[in-house]
Amino acid sequence: MTKVVDRSPLNFYEKTYLPALVEGFKVTARHFVRTVKGENTATDLGDGYYPEVPWRVNEGYRGAPYLVRDQEGSTKCVSCQLCEFICPPKAIKITPPGPEGQGADRPNAEKMPREFEINMLRCIFCGLCQEVCPEEAIFLQQHYSLSGLSREEMVYNKEKLLKLGGVHAGIQKWKHKLEEAREQESFPVQVD
Amino acid sequence: MPQFTDLLFYAFAGLTLLFGFLCVANPLSRNPVTSAMFLVLTIISMAGLFVLLHAFFLAAVQILVYAGAVMVLFLFVIMLLDLKEEDRRKLNKTAVGLGSLAVLGLAGVLVRAMLAAKPVIAAGSKPVEGSTKELGRILFESYLLPFEILSILLLVAMVGVILLSKKDLK
Amino acid sequence: MLENILSDPSVQFFLFSAAKIAVVFGVVMTFVAYAVLVERKVSAAIQDRVGPNRTAPPLALKIPVLGRLLQRWGMFQPMADGLKFILKEDFTPAYVRTIYFWLAPAISVIPAFLTLAVIPFGSNLGQQKMVIADLNVGILYTFGIVSLGVYGIVLAGWSSNSKYPFLGGIRSSAQMISYEIAMGMSVVSLFLISGDLNLSKLVEWQANHGWLVFYQPVSFVIFLVAAFAETNRLPFDLPESETELVGGYHTEYSSMKFALFFLGEYANMIASSAMMVTLFFGGWSLPFLGKPAESLLGGLIHIGIFIAKMIVLMIVFIWVRWMLPRFRYDQLMDLGWRRFIPLALANIVATALGVALFNR
Questions:
Q1: How far is CA B120 from the centre of its chain?
Q2: Would the CB atoms of C170 and B76 count as touching at under 8 Å?
Q3: B1-85: what fold?
């Protein structure tokens, strides 16, 4: 159903700005009284305000991207550099291990990054890195207020990112792949 | 304290002359905005002279009308036209000669007139208070016709400007 | 010797005037600082926030209950703000016209303070009249000085040599000139009734006959709206409108120079509130406190009444900011030229007729 907005010309009473003034006063006074009485969402937390009591973000909130470990505690990132290429503000910098470099710390991967840096001053929390990651190794997590005393401090390295990201046991890509593969093998193929 | 008012008179008169000079022939800057600002200062120091003559109404109107409205419009136009700094023109010798001759002649006439004039207010009498009430009475009783003619003149000028600035007349 | 000099009336006049100027200046500066705080707190409350509530100097929190309370009310915030303005980097961009860039903030502040000179903020304190300069053309003086306030903004816009400040400056000069006319015309009718341009006399007239706002509600409305336009407050803050002109005429300013513009805006608010109290709300008088004070206490009460009325009007200024959206430029001009000026003229004619009919 289309909604038709009434755009009839203003009548004289409306042209005097009086209704606008009255309505404006009503709205502002309502909010003012509510806040002064302490009935607002802003004071609803009860035990304090923002810096001391951080804002509770909802589930599914997408804040800063961090690297995650799998259920066995090994690095999921395989240094494919897709996130580095897709990153719109060029915040991610990956140093691959190179041909003679150290291998991955898990059996079903070839390599892992020697260094993985996200410059949080550049990052825009867009989530493209999470979307593009084939290994499901990087996730936008709940942190939203990052601060530091220097620019260098705001470049998060691999160690820090892994520590902040924690273990992401819910998504176990390789386990599921294995199960799928087994199912494929034992799938009863009916040939007529 | 008569000495103090005398001092103030010389201060304001000096400032008026100084700012007036800087308005037309500023040796440091050829910027039109600077000239306009010095004209504002000239007007304000002239208002100071009016105050010393106890003509408070005139002083206030001087600032209100000239400094507050007319000069703002001047400034407005200067800024909108974005006038560049004027080049220093070469001095035309005949023009300078004739100009200074004219100035000297005019100054001579003025000085002679001032020397010849008798003081209107006898010394010791009460200074004339230029109060607003009396001014209004004079304007609207003795000089009503000239006053109204002047206002019609201004109205005509205003209508004329509107007529000229309208591109398409309906 | 010293007594001789002190008993000289002109020396006394000089000393008392100097003292009054110092006190008024100090009070107004404090008012500006705390008006900013009130503005922040009221705005916060209207927008469901809490406002400044955590600034406190080192030892203030040691005071048992009061310290915490003052901190929660943000009473120390103005000090921190002032300190911050002084300590910030004073940056002058390379492309500005330096002399005017430095002059403009000062030019915009000075008129705001000068207008306060003619406002009678009390009746008597001892033998002294509580007004700095009891001019016979008080209101004309005020309008003259107010009209000079435009220069600060225009010069700031022009000297910044960049497009947004320039547009802000141009807008402000057009706006201020337009609304000055409406404002000036709105007060003519007041003086038709009272018969004197002196503001002290006007207050005395109101003390005897009742507040002029009841005689002249139309001119009060015009004056109020024009005052909003003259002080560049919302809904008429087109010269600085953040959403379209970045910061308007003070885009290029920083540190103390910016603070001076800020100071000028609030001082203007205070001056116009004081003006409205004097013109329409009976100045220092209340309906039952109309006689000029004879005792010291009475004089202080009158000053208190004046300040209280002024604060109420200041809160109106602050509150209206959140009630109405910003006007469009053509709407602003339309309101000024095609509504208020004819209305003010009609009001003058009507009042003149009324005075002619009833004062016979």
A1: 23
A2: yes
A3: Four Helix Bundle (Hemerythrin (Met), subunit A) (1.20.120)
